[in-house]
Specification:
disordered C terminus; binds magnesium ion; binds nicotinamide-adenine-dinucleotide; 10-stranded mixed β-sheet; Rossmann fold
């Protein structure tokens, strides 16, 4: 365990995990999607008893059985388990929780990969159960692939309710069994994980970056440049730049681009994403913190997702999607995942 003095962040590794906290226990993995399939298979290969919980009519049943796992209904799986890992979609979790609550015993553990439902009180865990989170910072197929290669996936650990006094140790043993402690597990809280996750995906990652790309593309096309050129400049090259930052931070990116790109970027970046953008970000963060966004999203789901469907349609209809599809069809690089050989020369 290392603690960074400047931030008091605790990072756990394999040395901190003690498998005896999960040995002999049964883990019910509810859901067999992105995270579920990875947790279930990694746990099983680490020697943990796993039972997958899926509805009778779930299309994932075949996949889980083909992977050699025992499949039960969510309720039966939870009843048989000491640890119930809730890996169905966040919007479905409250309903599934109602089904399994009656079969949770004192001392059992409710284990999550995201804090939304617990933090915003959509699930109110029974007293007497431990409530923990191991949230890999990767999609499930990467969690699985890293484990198979003997590598790890960084993750987060949080404890919301520690009824037994052993919640942290058990969560660490779980993190080890899915491969996270090989890479490092950062301690956080349900609140911090939920709020930073929502803010990140809204303001920077999914929302911010797509708006930046679309507005850049539109600016060039509206000024008379070709959509193909606009696509390359504003969308395709994004990956090359992000890969450099992922590998070596902002510094490696600035070092790799031309001096002209560096000077232009350093002088014009804040012109585009200016103080207004920061104020807008603060507004977005406030709506996450005060629960406005959560209420909106819950209501939207209860109404059958009318606005969400509209927004999805509009996004699909954007010109950049057609141009991109054509161009990606023409170039071989679209099939090759790694871009290490490609040069980023904005
Ligand atoms: P997913 O959408 O990939 O899969 C969910 C699975 O749940 C489905 O495959 C199905 O097996 C089952 N399911 C779907 N609808 C159901 C229903 N109505 N009733 C019962 N079961 C149903 O979900 P995911 O992305 O793996 O997310 C699971 C949890 O992991 C969420 O809390 C999510 O926030 C968290 N998480 C996801 C990622 C990621 O990259 N996908 C990363 C970190 C944490
Ligand atoms: Mg039980
Ligand atoms: Mg327990
Ligand atoms: Mg998220
Ligand atoms: Mg260029």
């Amino acid at each position: 365990m290392t603690t960074d003095d400047s931030t008091t962040t605790t990072v756990y590794t394999d040395d901190d995990a003690d498998a005896s906290y999960i040995d002999g226990k049964t883990v019910a993995v509810l859901g067999y999607g992105s995270q579920g399939h990875a947790h279930a298979q990694n746990l099983a290969e680490s020697g943990v008893d796993v039972v997958v919980g899926l509805r009778e009519d779930s299309s994932s049943r075949d996949a889980a059985e083909a992977d050699g796992l025992q499949v039960e209904t969510p309720r039966d799986a939870a009843e048989a388990a000491d640890i119930v890992s809730v890996l169905v979609p966040d919007t479905v979790q409250p309903t599934v929780y109602e089904e399994i609550e009656p079969v949770l015993d004192p001392g059992d553990t409710l284990q999550f990969a995201h804090g939304f439902n617990v933090h915003y009180n959509q699930i109110r865990p029974a007293e007497g159960v431990d409530v923990t989170m191991i949230a890999p910072k990767s999609p499930g197929h990467i969690v699985r692939r890293n484990y198979e290669r003997g590598e790890g996936t960084p993750g987060l650990l949080a404890v919301y309710q520690n009824a037994t006094g052993e919640a942290t140790q058990e969560a660490l043993a779980y993190a080890q069994a899915i491969g996270c402690t090989r890479a490092g597990v950062v301690e956080t809280t349900f609140r911090e994980e939920t709020e930073t996750d929502l803010f990140g995906e809204q303001a920077v990652l999914c929302g911010g970056v797509t708006s930046l790309i679309k507005q850049g593309y539109e600016t060039l096309v509206d000024a008379g440049y070709s959509p193909e050129m606009a696509y390359f400049e504003c969308m395709n090259e994004m990956k090359l730049i992000v890969d450099l930052m992922y590998e070596g931070g902002l510094g490696e990116m600035w070092d790799s681009v031309s001096d002209t790109a560096e000077y232009g970027g350093l002088t014009r970046g804040d012109v585009v994403v200016d103080e207004h953008a920061r104020e807008n970000m603060e507004e977005v963060l406030e709506a996450v913190q005060d629960g406005t966004f959560a209420r909106e999203w819950i209501t939207e789901n209860q109404a059958g997702r009318p606005s969400y469907d509209q927004l999805r349609k509009a996004e699909k209809a954007h010109d950049i999607e057609d141009v991109g599809e054509e161009l990606r069809g023409l170039f071989a690089w679209a099939d090759d995942a790694p871009t290490d050989e490609q040069d980023a020369t904005p």
